[in-house]
Hints:
Blueprint: H1 3-31, H2 47-72, H3 75-80, H4 85-117, H5 119-123, H6 127-150, H7 161-169, H8 183-198, H9 212-215
Helix pairs in contact: 1-8, 2-4, 4-6, 6-8
InterPro entries: Heme-iron_electron_transfer, NarG-like_domain, NarG-like_sf, Nitrate_red_gam
Subcellular location: Cell membrane
Membrane topology: Multi-pass membrane protein
Amino acid sequence: MHNAWAHLLWVYYPYLMLASFFFGTFIRFKYFHGSITAKSSEIFEKKKLMIGSILFHIGIIMAFFGHCLGMLVPQAWTDYFGITEHMYHMFGSLMMGIPAGSLAWIGMAILTWRRMTVARVYKTSSINDILVDWVLLITITLGMSCTIYGAFIDFNYRQSIGPWVRSLFTLNPQWQLMLNVPLIYRIHVLVGFFVFGYFPYTRLVHALTLPWQYIFAVAIHLPPLYRLPPADQVGLKAPNGEAFLVE
């Protein structure tokens, strides 16, 4: 790969997508907070939405933390605790990665099929909604392909893709590490960064909303409730003449 293309794909492009993610998210929350919604179409069809959504969310959460572990934790750390590359590959990539990816893929496939085939859902979907579903489905498909393909080749992404990702955060991108990475992995990485850059401008941004105001809210002390008086005190009134007060 020519150095100019290598710099474009493995230096400038990732930073551009990350900048789009952070800048777009800030603008969306600052100036367009009212537009942040999951845009549920449950009113039109419920069963497929419930099944697909549950499977997708469980799978994608598992896959997210698996990616964080694989990309951000150096192999030297797991080696220190006696976890060999073979053990990590068998347990992390295969025993955890395949179930997580399968759940996410099946869930996303159901949601995409639902959006495209249920007439009322399709008619109320925007181009952006449809594009998001297909982009996520393609991304998950590529991820599953990497996991399955990786089981048959001698490739350790924690010695190439992982260090490259961490080098981006240290502002010293080691683009050379990506030159010999198998093509399917490189495509998955590029599409994955596209999802990050595209994220703030879609309904996916609702994933970042948390009820912080309720978590840190000051306790509210309610006044005593006004209740009906006991049967033997019917007709009595409080000193102020209002309804009987029982504390």
